[in-house]
Specification:
single chain; 282 residues; alpha+beta; Trna Endonuclease, Chain: A, domain 1; three-stranded antiparallel sheet; 18% strand; binds zinc ion
């Protein structure tokens, strides 16, 4: 449970000023490190390209392994076999209902799994990712933590090289570099479409609801921007748009719930707060 000294709706002029201050602070940090970055330019760019080619190589290997996995699943399903090679049969149990089980399941020396009724099952190995490439560059070169990932990110982009995460995975690295980004600049089609859709359902819907707050015992005022906040007679709903399930953030979720709850409580409003994620890719 987050506790606050105060929570207030923020005015547009305050939010504008906040982002202006944030941008100039980031620019100052960048310029402070520019000498070091320029001295290490070749090394930094070499690591960038090394991360890119590692990723491409891993991705190629993954595709091969993935296709092998798929055809194995297909064959096992046709033959009604477990991955251990033994037959599977339909088991009817009083407790678990019907399920497909391996006839050799008592043999604990080997792994048992079958994909019957779930031909789209995913393999137990992960797709390679370039996410976090600025931190990787920093780690590979042993740069100090004072060279933030944001500084490396901007240095690469200023050298006319693309954000690898955006290029290969369609999700900008910025979202993980900065806790707070001026999302007003990068609203996705998905977010706008959701906002429109929700607008038909609720009495009131606010896009990028701006809140300023101060946590108890923490220095400085902070800002928060829940994506979409809607309300009706009974509830206030917080909708947070995410690209996929892997982007959910439990801290952000509890913070937003606590912030909106405090706002309502201070206003003597007894409605409930409901939080829901909206996923672009299920
Ligand atoms: Zn088996």
């Amino acid at each position: 449970m987050n506790e606050f000294e105060y929570v207030l709706p923020a005015k547009k002029s305050e939010v504008d000023q906040f982002f202006k201050d944030t941008d100039s602070q980031r620019l100052r940090d960048y310029n402070k490190n520019l000498g070091l970055l320029n001295r290490m330019k070749d090394k930094i760019i070499n690591e960038y390209h090394a991360i890119k080619s590692d990723y491409l190589k891993n991705q190629e290997e993954y595709q091969v392994k993935f296709l092998q996995f798929r055809s194995k699943v297909l064959k096992l399903n046709e033959a009604k076999k477990c991955i251990c090679g033994a037959d599977v049969r339909l088991v009817s149990g009083p407790h678990f209902g019907d399920f497909w089980g391996c006839t050799e399941h008592m043999n604990y020396a080997v792994r048992h799994e079958n994909y019957i009724l779930r031909p789209d099952a995913l393999p137990n190995f992960y797709e390679p990712s370039v996410k976090g490439w600025p931190a990787q560059i920093r780690n590979r070169l042993g740069l100090s933590k004072s060279v933030s990932t944001g500084i490396i990110y901007n240095f690469i982009l200023n050298n006319n090289l693309p954000d690898l995460s955006l290029h290969f995975e369609g999700v900008s690295e910025l979202g993980s570099i900065y806790k707070i980004v001026d999302t007003r600049k990068k609203a996705t089609a998905f977010e706008l479409q959701q906002f429109k859709r929700l607008g038909f359902h609720y009495d009131k819907c606010v896009w990028q609801f701006s809140i300023k707050y101060k946590s108890l015992g923490v220095r400085g005022q902070k800002y928060a921007f829940p994506d979409i906040v809607c309300s009706d007679d009974r509830n206030v709903y917080i909708y947070e748009c995410k690209t996929s399930k892997s982007d959910v953030n439990d801290y952000q979720k509890s913070l937003y719930i606590d912030l909106i709850s405090k706002l309502l409580k201070d206003a003597g409003d007894t409605r409930n707060v409901v939080f829901e994620y909206l996923f672009e890719h299920a």
